[in-house]
Specification:
Helix content: over 70%
Strand content: under 5%
Length: about 60
């Protein structure tokens, strides 16, 4: 977060954050098989929204 706010390789950080965040969703499903909680579901919804926002940011940066 500190690197992003300081402007250090923002595009690279955003691209790296997409798979880092996205891979946590299927891993959560496999690791927590059968023990899902409301907090876990809320966390995954937030992560999905984050991935969508990051992808949109990458496309906006590319077109700028």
């Amino acid at each position: 977060m500190l690197l992003y706010t300081r402007g250090v390789r923002r595009h690279g950080l955003v691209i790296a954050a997409i798979p880092y965040t996205a891979v946590q969703i299927p891993l959560w499903y496999v690791v927590k098989a059968g023990n899902f909680t409301l907090v876990g579901y809320a966390d995954k919804i937030v992560q999905i929204v984050l991935v969508v926002a990051l992808v949109a940011l990458v496309f906006r940066q590319r077109n700028a």
